[in-house]
Design goal:
GO biological process, one term: phosphatidylglycerol biosynthetic process
Number of helices: 7
Largest sheet: none
Protein name: Phosphatidylglycerophosphatase A
Structural class: mainly alpha
Distance between the termini: 49 Å
Function: Lipid phosphatase which dephosphorylates phosphatidylglycerophosphate (PGP) to phosphatidylglycerol (PG).
GO cellular component, one term: plasma membrane
Pathway: Phospholipid metabolism; phosphatidylglycerol biosynthesis; phosphatidylglycerol from CDP-diacylglycerol: step 2/2
Radius of gyration: 15 Å
Shape: globular
Number of strands: 0
Number of domains: 1
Helix content: 55-70%
Strand content: under 5%
Length: 164
């Protein structure tokens, strides 16, 4: 069965597999509707904790999440037999981390960053859509969300007047 024909297939989640649990956002990606949105929402408490770190700490955790995400997403996709299964939301976690780099913590920023990230992740403007279709494996799963996060970050920076 192809990925497109299998869009609503249940993942072959192994309950004791920590790689699977991280990749599905500790269960948030198992939501029956809008798993990417639920994964993005589940990332907010982690992002809020990270925002307490100095910038270098925030960046270090974000880079680590991105590097580990290549493995988590790729391994889990292989185990599920489905490239970028909707339940795999670690890429949303990493994309949300990118969205909030050097952004002050406030409920307004969290709401706006979440909305911007979901907008870019769902709409997939160029080059996000191209990358989503042409880059495979764990990096392919991650890269479109990282770029959506970068676009959301730029939107936040523009709206806050940091970029002129």
């Amino acid at each position: 069965m192809t990925d497109s024909a299998n869009n609503s297939a249940k993942p072959k989640l192994q309950p004791r597999n920590l790689t699977h649990w991280a990749a599905v956002g500790f269960g948030s990606g198992l939501a029956p509707k809008a798993p990417g949105t639920f994964g993005s929402l589940a990332a907010i408490p982690l992002v809020m904790l990270m925002m307490q770190l100095p910038l270098w700490g925030y960046l270090a955790v974000t880079v680590l999440a991105c590097v580990i995400g290549n493995y988590l997403c790729g391994r889990t996709a292989d185990d599920f037999g489905y490239h970028d299964h909707p339940a795999i939301v670690w890429d949303e976690f990493a994309g949300m981390m990118v969205t909030f780099i050097a952004i002050p913590l406030s409920w307004q920023n969290l709401l706006l960053g979440f909305v911007l990230f979901r907008f870019f992740d769902i709409i997939k403007p160029w080059p996000i859509r191209w990358l989503d279709r042409h880059v495979h494996g764990g990096f392919g799963i991650m890269v479109d969300d990282l770029l959506a996060g970068a676009m959301a970050w730029l939107g936040l920076m523009l709206l806050q007047g940091y970029v002129h």
